[in-house]
């Protein structure tokens, strides 16, 4: 799954928890917790609010998102073998 500028922070972190560390790495620049404050805003909106370079911000998040070591945030086990 590729990320795009119009995905929300929630869309990303709810699917892959290890991207939270990427957003946390921008907290100091933002002077607040991006995940706490802007969870339902898009990558594009967050970049605009903090004057982050959109391409760079997206690339940083995408790099972690496409990492083969991603851990899904929610793993659902199907109790039925037909799943």
How many beta-strand elements?
A: 0
Estimate the global geometry from the Cα principal axes: globular
Extract low-pLDDT stretches. Answer: 68-80
**Helix content percent band:** 40-55%
- The fraction of residues in strands falls at under 5%
Biggest sheet overview: none
Q: Separation of termini? A: 22 Å
Give the count of helical stretches: 6
Structural class: mainly alpha
- C-alpha Rg, in Å? 14 Å
Task: Please write the string of helix (H) and strand (E) elements.
Answer: HHHHHH
Q: What is the residue-averaged pLDDT?
A: 80
- Oligomer state equals single chain
InterPro entries: ScdA-like_N_sf (IPR038062)
Write out key terms for the chains shown:
46% helix; 83 residues; 0% strand; globular; mainly alpha
């Amino acid at each position: 799954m590729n990320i795009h500028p119009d995905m929300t922070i929630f869309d990303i972190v709810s699917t892959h928890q290890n991207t939270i560390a990427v957003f946390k790495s921008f907290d100091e620049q933002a002077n607040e917790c991006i995940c706490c404050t802007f969870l339902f805003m898009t990558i594009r909106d967050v970049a605009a609010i903090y004057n982050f370079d959109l391409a760079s911000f997206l690339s940083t998040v995408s790099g972690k998102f496409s990492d083969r070591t991603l851990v899904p945030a929610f793993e659902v086990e199907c109790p039925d073998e037909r799943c």
